[in-house]
């Protein structure tokens, strides 16, 4: 090797250490685990990445037609969600695709049309856009345009999304709103390992093209006692995580854990009782659960990481306003990402932080 | 008529019934009367152009680029500059001082040999593994560290991840993470520059994995059909993260695709600085005089991990990496040539590395101490001028920070 030894370089480096660390090491949320329903049987402590791997493993075992592919999937995936699966099931079923998202989507649609259970990975949700034409113009419309002669219901696309602390423009996006605008697709966002595994197993069996956006920051940070066997969490159903009477707070993914913390804080410090709902499914979304809740509490805050203008919160706010108008004590509010590309060093200011939420709770209660 | 600068089109449009039965009217190809499926294996693999052998000895005198001592040292120093920066910054990431880093190990000649063959104002589009290119152009260690730290002096205002360099002054378009997006853009820029009468070529770097994206097909076809003076420079380094070339393509690499688009092409030894240089000089000449794109495929080897988020020992053997390092390292090949000319010594090498390492550390420590860009700056450049809604969101954030600012570590931002 050319140059000074690594040891010397490190020594030279440490002499110049500055007190203020440049890298954010703290996370903006604290993951809150849930208990698995008892009827789902034996559980094991599992993080979200391994829970996802378990879902894929189970599907590969139970359905011989199942194939899993994407960029770097063969060696285990950049997030290790397919680690060991190629060794177990062979490279005919667990394989690398060339580096081409439009190819991954189109090839995936075709495999599903021909009857294979198809699990396609888009390495980062920020890179799903070359596949947008295939997903929106083809996958979503396949059944409808052919009069049900053909469909690609066996297709599931899974993709890591959302803020990770230092991902900036192209490793942090939450693109669910673009796809929510497309009839024919199903879209969901798990908040936890139990959810991720169960939602994926539902998506694999659902006869519609499904997209599962997995918040990447939860891959290692989220650990729960996850049922080891096969189980499904239904698509299209929201989850009431905490019952309350004063206000409904609605979100999905990583942001749910910020909401849960805020709910505890405002209960303890201000005596405000928050009902927390995880939407879980973006498309179709559970109007009944959400509107029942807001009609009960009379107040609502919707929060997501994606930029506020035309984020999915806009759909929720519009529907809630028209359905629950006469039960509302205050206008529904949104606390979301700013209308800028996702910034690097300013991420803590861009995000819908717990402080922004606490301020919003106070304002809505005072309205 | 828009014929200024256009190369002469060889195939005229045939609108009347052909006089001869020998050639198909639309393709001008000969008719044959025996059924024959062409197997790609019948077609010879494109050869690899090389000037120096692995020990830096020039194989054919007539291919010697005839560098002066100053030219050679300038290029060599740029390679070492890149290499030293990589070492220090990789460690800095491991220590938590920067969030992310990507090294250029093993690709220094592919980067420096090519950029050195261009004019300073030729427009460069790159992917992310071309720091040597911008360093050669004059980007300083301080500027690079400022970008990696995203501090107040970062040209990108702390918006992107580390190594996403750019400089209008140096004609290096700011890079973005999505792969291959720069290729069609490079073709378009070349078209516009040609129409403007500027004698500037566009240089576009990308990896072999990147060439699998649809944007590559679009770029090659547009560049060829629209007479764009662009050089598509492919760094074929063997891997796209963990994906080896065997999983990326089955054909004869990237260069072999060019004739399919009507594009000129050459495959070069990417670890041979002279070969890269010669090929790029020639490509520039052809691109500008004939207004056509050229594809250069530089065969090299990614000696480092994909990034600080990757551990390549998971998918390739350390023996393989060591083999390339010992037997075919671009820096040592050129150094051996320079030493054989009496232009360089191991003492100078050690002194250079030591002094550059000190320079990186100085730049790093300086960058670390600087504040981050102001909070206001987050709302700028979304548009040329912020919209009323953006102004409203900025005001709302400032109001929020008045009350809750103590939770946000606001001291790190400049006013």
UniProtKB/TrEMBL annotation, chain A:
Pfam families: Transket_pyr, Transketolase_C. It is an enzyme of class 1 (oxidoreductase). CDD domains: TPP_PYR_E1-PDHc-beta_like. Its EC number is 1.2.4.4. Signal peptide: none annotated. Its cofactor is thiamine diphosphate. It catalyses: N(6)-[(R)-lipoyl]-L-lysyl-[protein] + 3-methyl-2-oxobutanoate + H(+) = N(6)-[(R)-S(8)-2-methylpropanoyldihydrolipoyl]-L-lysyl-[protein] + CO2. It comes from the Eukaryota. Keywords: Oxidoreductase. Residues 46-221 form the Transketolase-like pyrimidine-binding domain. SMART domains: Transket_pyr (SM00861). PANTHER family: 2-OXOISOVALERATE DEHYDROGENASE SUBUNIT BETA, MITOCHONDRIAL (PTHR42980:SF1), 2-OXOISOVALERATE DEHYDROGENASE SUBUNIT BETA-RELATED (PTHR42980). This is 3-methyl-2-oxobutanoate dehydrogenase (2-methylpropanoyl-transferring). It comes from Oikopleura dioica (Tunicate). The lineage of its organism: Eukaryota, Metazoa, Chordata, Tunicata, Appendicularia.
From TrEMBL, chain B:
It comes from Oikopleura dioica. Heterotetramer of 2 alpha/BCKDHA and 2 beta chains/BCKDHB that forms the branched-chain alpha-keto acid decarboxylase (E1) component of the BCKD complex. The branched-chain alpha-ketoacid dehydrogenase is a large complex composed of three major building blocks E1, E2 and E3. It is organized around E2, a 24-meric cubic core composed of DBT, to which are associated 6 to 12 copies of E1, and approximately 6 copies of the dehydrogenase E3, a DLD dimer. Interacts with PPM1K. The branched-chain alpha-keto dehydrogenase complex catalyzes the overall conversion of alpha-keto acids to acyl-CoA and CO(2). It contains multiple copies of three enzymatic components: branched-chain alpha-keto acid decarboxylase (E1), lipoamide acyltransferase (E2) and lipoamide dehydrogenase (E3). Together with BCKDHB forms the heterotetrameric E1 subunit of the mitochondrial branched-chain alpha-ketoacid dehydrogenase (BCKD) complex. The BCKD complex catalyzes the multi-step oxidative decarboxylation of alpha-ketoacids derived from the branched-chain amino-acids valine, leucine and isoleucine producing CO2 and acyl-CoA which is subsequently utilized to produce energy. The E1 subunit catalyzes the first step with the decarboxylation of the alpha-ketoacid forming an enzyme-product intermediate. It catalyses: N(6)-[(R)-lipoyl]-L-lysyl-[protein] + 3-methyl-2-oxobutanoate + H(+) = N(6)-[(R)-S(8)-2-methylpropanoyldihydrolipoyl]-L-lysyl-[protein] + CO2. The keyword Membrane does not apply. CDD domains: TPP_E1_PDC_ADC_BCADC. Belongs to the BCKDHA family. SUPFAM superfamilies: Thiamin diphosphate-binding fold (THDP-binding). The keyword Transmembrane does not apply. InterPro entries: Alpha-ketoacid_DH_E1_comp, DH_E1, THDP-binding. Keywords: Oxidoreductase, Thiamine pyrophosphate, Transit peptide. Residues 76-375 form the Dehydrogenase E1 component domain. Its EC number is 1.2.4.4. Its cofactor is thiamine diphosphate. It is an enzyme of class 1 (oxidoreductase). Pfam families: E1_dh. This is 2-oxoisovalerate dehydrogenase subunit alpha.
């Amino acid at each position: 090797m050319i140059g000074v030894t690594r040891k010397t370089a490190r020594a030279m480096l440490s002499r110049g250490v500055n007190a203020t660390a440049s890298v954010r090491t703290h996370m903006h949320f604290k993951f809150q685990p849930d208990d698995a329903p008892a009827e789902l049987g034996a559980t094991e402590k599992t993080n979200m990445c391994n829970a996802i791997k378990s879902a894929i493993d189970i599907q590969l075992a139970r359905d011989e037609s199942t194939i899993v592919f994407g960029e770097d999937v063969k060696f285990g995936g950049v997030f290790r969600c397919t680690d060991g699966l190629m060794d177990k099931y062979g490279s005919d079923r667990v394989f690398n695709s060339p580096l081409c998202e439009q190819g991954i989507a189109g090839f995936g649609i075709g495999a599903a049309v021909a009857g294979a259970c198809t699990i396609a990975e888009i390495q980062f949700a920020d890179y799903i856009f070359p596949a947008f034409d295939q997903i929106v113009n083809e996958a979503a419309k396949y059944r409808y345009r052919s009069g049900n002669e053909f469909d690609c219901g066996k297709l599931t696309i899974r993709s890591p999304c959302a803020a990770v602390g230092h991902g900036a423009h192209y490793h942090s996006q939450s693109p669910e709103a673009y796809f929510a605008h497309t009839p024919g697709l199903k879209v969901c966002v798990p908040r936890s390992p139990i959810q991720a595994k169960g939602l994926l197993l539902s998506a694999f069996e659902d006869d519609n093209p499904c997209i599962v956006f997995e918040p990447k920051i939860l891959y290692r940070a989220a650990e729960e006692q996850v049922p080891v066997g096969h189980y499904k969490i239904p698509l299209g159903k929201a989850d009431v995580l905490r019952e309350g009477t004063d206000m409904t707070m609605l979100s999905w993914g990583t942001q749910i854990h910020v909401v849960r913390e805020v709910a505890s804080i405002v209960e303890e410090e201000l005596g405000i009782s928050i009902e927390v709902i995880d939407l879980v499914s973006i498309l179709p979304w559970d109007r009944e659960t959400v509107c029942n809740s807001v009609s009960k509490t009379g107040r609502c805050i919707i929060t997501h990481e994606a930029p506020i203008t035309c984020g999915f919160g806009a759909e929720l706010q519009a529907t809630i306003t028209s359905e629950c108008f006469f039960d509302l004590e205050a206008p529904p509010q949104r606390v979301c990402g700013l209308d800028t590309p996702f910034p690097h060093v300013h991420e803590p200011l861009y995000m819908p932080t717990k402080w922004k939420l606490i301020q919003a709770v106070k304002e809505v209660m005072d309205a | 008529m828009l014929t200024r600068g256009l190369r002469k089109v060889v195939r005229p449009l045939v609108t009347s019934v052909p006089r001869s039965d020998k050639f198909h009217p639309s393709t001008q190809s000969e008719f044959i009367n025996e059924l024959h499926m062409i197997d790609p294996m019948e077609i010879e693999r494109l050869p690899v152009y090389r000037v120096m052998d692995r020990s830096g000895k020039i194989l054919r005198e007539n291919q010697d680029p005839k560098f002066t001592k100053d030219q050679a040292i300038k290029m060599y120093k740029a390679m070492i500059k890149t290499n030293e920066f990589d070492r220090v910054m990789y460690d800095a990431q491991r220590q938590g001082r920067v969030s992310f880093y990507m090294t250029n190990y093993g690709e220094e000649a592919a980067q420096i040999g090519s950029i050195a063959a261009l004019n300073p104002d030729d427009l460069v589009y790159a992917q992310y593994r071309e720091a040597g290119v911008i360093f050669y152009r004059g980007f300083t260690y301080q500027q690079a560290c400022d970008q990696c730290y995203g501090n107040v002096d970062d040209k990108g205002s702390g918006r992107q991840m580390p190594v996403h360099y750019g400089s209008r002054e140096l004609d290096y378009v700011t890079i973005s993470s999505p792969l291959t997006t720069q290729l069609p853009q490079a073709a378009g820029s070349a078209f516009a520059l040609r129409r403007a009468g500027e004698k500037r070529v566009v240089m576009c770097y990308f990896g072999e994995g990147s060439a699998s994206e649809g944007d590559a097909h679009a770029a090659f076809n547009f560049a060829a059909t629209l007479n764009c003076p662009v050089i598509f420079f492919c760094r074929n380094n063997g891997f796209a993260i963990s994906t080896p070339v065997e999983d990326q393509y089955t054909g004869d690499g990237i260069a072999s695709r060019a004739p399919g688009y009507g594009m000129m092409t050459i495959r070069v030894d990417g670890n041979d600085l002279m070969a890269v240089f010669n090929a790029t000089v020639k490509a520039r000449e052809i691109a500008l005089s004939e207004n056509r794109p050229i594809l250069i495929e530089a065969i090299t080897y990614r000696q480092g991990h994909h990034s600080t988020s990757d551990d390549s020992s998971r998918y390739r053997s350390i023996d393989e990496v060591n083999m390339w390092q010992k037997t075919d390292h671009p820096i040592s090949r050129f150094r051996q040539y320079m030493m054989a000319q009496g232009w360089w010594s191991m003492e100078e090498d050690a002194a250079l590395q030591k002094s550059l390492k000190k320079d990186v550390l100085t730049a790093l420590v300086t960058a670390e101490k600087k504040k981050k860009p102001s909070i206001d700056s987050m709302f700028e450049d979304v548009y040329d001028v912020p919209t009323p809604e953006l102004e409203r969101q900025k005001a709302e954030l400032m109001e929020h920070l008045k009350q809750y600012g103590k939770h946000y570590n606001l001291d790190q931002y400049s006013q």
